[in-house]
Amino acid sequence: MLKRFTANIFLVDDDVLCLNLYSQFLKQLGYTNVHLFDNGNDCLTGLDEFNPDIIFLDYNMDDLNGLDVLKQIKKFNPAITVLFISGQEDIEIAVNTIQHGALDYIVKSSISTEKLKTIMERVEKHMQPETTHPTAQKSLLKRLFS
Questions:
Q1: What is the pTM of this model?
Q2: pLDDT of residue 130
């Protein structure tokens, strides 16, 4: 088990097979606080109740598209980390989601346990507060430039 930090995770996809697959991948990595939603409206309704840290979001869903859901999530809490896992391989869609606050855009066909492990390590780093202590900054600068 890899579990590096405790996170409240939402998986949102109208494809139930994908939801179950991603859930199994996360469980293999040691994440247990995972909530599954098969549409964007239920995800948005669950924000108040579950207060997620991370949301994996599909782009094309029957009720709302992922970009509309992302915008509502960011209105609710801009600190929630949102990543897209989508079958859409359109670069314009990917760029648009990043411009609206998504951390990453992953194509479904490339997802695996190993890829998800790498993604979660990146998410962990993204979620950690940066050190702003002046001594730590000076020490880092000294190591970089000596």
A1: 0.84
A2: 55
Find where tokens 């509309």 sit: 68
When pLDDT is cut at 50, 70 and 90, the band that residue 136 belongs to is very low
- Pick from 12, 57, 54: nearest CA to 29: 54
Cβ neighbors of 106 (< 8 A, separation 6 or more) are: 83, 84, 85, 86, 115, 119
Sheet holding 81-86, edge to edge: 34-37, 9-12, 54-57, 81-86, 104-107
For residue range 43-66, what is the model confidence (pLDDT) as tens digits? 999 999 999 999 999 999 988 899
Which residue type is seen at 24? Answer: Q
Which three-class secondary structure string do you get for the chain?
CCCCCCCCEEEECCCHHHHHHHHHHHHHCCCCCEEEECCHHHHHHHHHHHCCCEEEECCCCCCCCHHHHHHHHHHHCCCCEEEEEECCCCHHHHHHHHHCCCCEEEEHHHCCHHHHHHHHHHHHHHHCCCCCCHHHHHHHHHHHHC
